[in-house]
Amino acid sequence: MWQKLLEWDRDAFIYLNSLGIESYDSFWSIVTHIGTWIPLFMLFIIILFQKFPNREATLRVWTALGLLIFVLSLTYITKISVARLRPNNTEEINTLIRILHSPTDYSFFSGHASSSFSLTILMYLFLRKKTIWALLFFVWPVLFALSRIYVGVHYPSDIIVGAMVGICCGVLFYKLYNKFISPYSRSGHPE
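Predicted structure:
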């Protein structure tokens, strides 16, 4: 059963990766780079400070930073524990796929998916009652995660599990914020 799932994952990756079109390579290479998304992170901070009093916004920013540290640590520990080779480093398929990036660390689960989905779900939960555009935040993690298949460095299961871990961690930190931090913010009332 487990072997069948891994085969399906590999075959799905090869198929999805092969859908890439060379004229879009530069777009997906830019999308997959973390630096491309720094303006979005800045936008999150600006919106928090526009919609909440300074103390409350600051506590929300610190909560987001704590979440990122937690998720990236969890991702790193999982990657070295599972030690699954990335598709671009797997000899049986790396000649069959399009490779635009060649990281040498492990694959399972995607740090891009876990970190982007965790931060997005937290920002969505913080801001959903403050801005009608909050659902648009999810364009970022979807593009960011899908780019990892396009550039040849993650299997679909890496992305799916990373997204699920990210969503769960984002919800957890939102609940922790409301229970332990929100009572000490200026407004003092949990959402």
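Summary: The chain has seven helices and no strands.
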